[in-house]
Amino acid sequence: TEVGILAKSYIDQGRLIPDDIMTRLMLNELKGLDRYNWLLDGFPRTVAQAEVLDKECQIDTVIDLDVPFETIKCRLTARWIHPASGRVYNLEFSPPKVQGIDDITGEPLVQRDDDKPETVTKRLQAYDAQTKPVLEYYRKKGLLKSFSGTETNKIWPHIYAFLQTKLPDVSQKDAATPR
Fold this sequence. Notes:
By secondary structure, the protein is mostly helical. It has a domain at about 60-165: Rossmann fold, CATH 3.40.50.300. Helices cover about 45% and strands about 10% of the residues. It contains six helices and four strands; from the N terminus they run αααβαββαβα. It has helices at about 1-10, 20-30, 45-55, 70-75, 115-140, 150-165, and strands at about 60-65, 80, 85-90, 145-150. Belongs to the adenylate kinase family. It catalyses: GTP + AMP = GDP + ADP.
């Protein structure tokens, strides 16, 4: 879409998408989901986005994944893709059989512009500066729950147990079923 292309231009420059564009994208996606439980990942990132979201939707809880900057940077900069298929490799935990080469086609892998070290650093710094006030916004509303760690398999059980207290009738198996 036109707004999607505009958003991509910001991402490719290592910049965060402006509030008005991001909220337009997200609220459009959320229309019609009132029969479902849903989880947003990475939105809202600013207080302005949070305020618009709160006017349109009832927010029950906000989860903060407190992961060190260096852990995120290492994971993102180790990511390489096969452009034609979209296959994703990570040099740390799911590398290709031959470095820089797609396992299936033998074609070269590329690193997306937004995964290059300098772009990742710039994005993470901007993200941190903009999201601290959002965390405080939701903390004051009593909606924020933080989880700290560096490994998904160690953080996830705690998050899942917490979500069970919020949605006790939803299991992993039927989490995508409308209610």
